[in-house]
Amino acid sequence: MRKIVFAALLLSWVGVVAQERRPPPPPPARPARPVAPPPQRPVVQRPVPQRPAPPPQRPVVQRPVVRPGTPPPGGVRPAPQRPPVVNRPPGNGRPQGGVRPPDGRPPGNPRPPVATRPPGYQPPPGGHRPPGWGQHRPGYTRPPHFWNGHNYYTYRPYYYHPYRPYVYGPTWHPLGFFLTGLAAGATIVALNDIDYRYDQGVFYQPEDNGYKVVAPPIGAVVSSLPQDAVSQQVGDDTFYYYGGVFYVQVNNGYQVVKAPPGAIVYNLPDGATTVNADGVTYLQYNGDYYQPIQDDQGQSAYEVVNIEDPGQGN
Q: What is the DSSP string of 19-49?
């Protein structure tokens, strides 16, 4: 009986020990949280660019191949087509040398006007010779341009080109220019009880504690001319030109003279004024008139005009 009780107690103890050595049961699993799906972006339907349709194909024209020297069908070559001949009015030819002027003409004056002959004008035999001209000066064979009661004689026809004042250098100054002092090389030129100052082709007079540029006095004699002065032959006379002034050589230097009619110059200084004489534009400088012309080489120039009252000369 004791053995049975002991055995029962031993089994009971063993069961308790085994139950204590068992691992505890795992904790109950937590329910999983639902995962929200990421937001779906709206699908944007973009238009598919349409490519331009290809250009239509030009039809290929099959042209017969003609070799050089091969006559066309029929053996007759077509005559070349030439432009129609345009009859130019009289006096509408090209300038000498075939070179057109580079400069434009004034508005309303497309072509040089024909010189207006004075009433009852008859060209004298051998040309018109102004009073006092010797046989060494050729007469005018062209009729004069009559304007404002005077005859305007030139050897060459009127040929307009714009007036562009020429600058002769830093020592040259136009009429009316004022200086507070002159260079040491300026000289005194006395004429008609007036003491002028002369320097590099320019005449001055004292004024307001300085010097003012004045018109060159006719008859004044200077000892020398600027190195850029040019000589010109008019008939049998030799003239020198610089800065709008003409000189002739005398015993003690060079004397200022009026512009000789028929002389041709290529530069006029600042200070010239334009005179519209019934369709002809003259330039006036220091009392002399210049007509725009074109020389034999097609270069723009100016000719000194001879102005007379009707009935003068032969």
A: HHHSPPPPPPPPPPPPPPPPPPPPPP-PPPP
Task: Compute CA distances 172 → 228, 265, 290, whole Å.
Answer: 12, 18, 21
Could you give the C-alpha distances from 45 to 42, 48, 240, in angstroms and in order? 9, 9, 92
Check residue 98 and report its DSSP letter. G
Tokens representing 73 are 């069908």
Identify the CA nearest to 176 among candidates 271, 71, 104: 271
Residues shown for the chain: 314
For residues 6 and 108, which has the higher predicted lDDT (pLDDT)? 6
For the record, the structure tokens of 311 come out as 């009935």
Contact 194, 217 (CB under 8 A): yes
Using alpha carbons, select from 146, 270, 281 the residue that is nearest to residue 202.
270
Instruction: Return the bridge partners of 238, or none.
Output: 233
116: exposed, middle or buried (Cβ count in 10 Å: 0-12, 13-18, 19+): middle
- Its pTM stands at 0.60
Cα angle at 269 between 267 and 274, to 5 degrees? Answer: 95
CB-CB contact of 4 with 11 (8 Å): no
**What DSSP assignment string belongs to 169-215?**
-TT---TT-EES---TT-EEEEETTEEEEEETTEEEEEETTEEEEEP
251-293 pLDDT, tens digit per residue, is: 999 999 999 999 999 999 999 999 999 999 999 999 999 999 9
